[in-house]
Amino acid sequence: MIGRQILWLSLIVILCSTANAETIKKDGAERFKGELITNSIPMEPGALLTINSAGSLSGSIEIKTGGDKLIYRYQKVLKAETKSEAARFAEVITVASEQSDLGITISLRAPQTTPWAGTNNSGRLRLIITLPEGTSLKINSAYFDINGIGPFSKFIVTESLSRVEISQVTDLVDIKVSNRPLIVNQISGQIRLTNQYGPIKIEAADCTGETAVIRNNNGDITIESLIGGLEIRSEMGRVFGKNLYLTGDQNYIKNKSADIILSFDSLTTGRLRINNRYGNINLRIAGRLDARFVCKTEEDSEVTAQGMFISSPLVDKSRLEFETGGGLAEIRVTARGSGNIKLIGPERN
Question: Which residues pair with 222 in a beta bridge?
Fold first, then answer.
């Protein structure tokens, strides 16, 4: 009798495991995918969503806003030689969510040593999220490409080795990337962007009353449009900026081994310091110009200024000081090493 009960229990366990097993479908040569699984959780506007992923797991995270709850969908994308191997990969990838007073957390899990580790195969996860407008996000994920379209309140990425592209953030953007592109658009409030070996691109930013802080070691920094304060520190990448309207007294741009090329809507107030060591500095002012310039170079380099009315000039071999317009803004430009300085005004004041 006891033996029969054990047999029945074993059959029930096997049947339940079979019923709960995820369906794996072939998706090309040595390519498989799991089911698209959907979950939803009530979520208040302005709440915090945290996404944590295992360091052994990679994939993509796509985020958009809409509706009055959190809806997340996920699908496992598997590269394996056989369907049974793909199913084995899928078993170790799990997604869980938890709700607390601090907000909602989605955890993307996999063992530290995965069954595909050290092979040409892989187990990846695609996560698709829709959540209410004005939500804040914090993402702790090294190997997931991130794409987000708001409006969001805050968007934080603690450290990523993958591509990050976001738009429409109102209060805070704080993103750290190591070697892939970082692209932001229509962002405002506090802005802190860091990259190590990949480019940073800001398509449109408004940090009025704040100072955007941008760091990059070996990648280019490109700004298409920015209003507010600006602090840039770069090492080996070029710095490009246009449609700049800087405010405040703490604007600072520093580079070491590449050109700085900037175009301003106007320069009429505040302070700006620009330093470069082994690259040129080119400044173009398209609109109104009321500034006092102090430009310094090494003896073998040169400073040129054109398209502006210059008054009270002080000129020697490595220094040019002058005022143009009302002289309200203070611009200090220093090129050390082999760099030249070129200033181009609007040809009217």
Answer: 201, 240
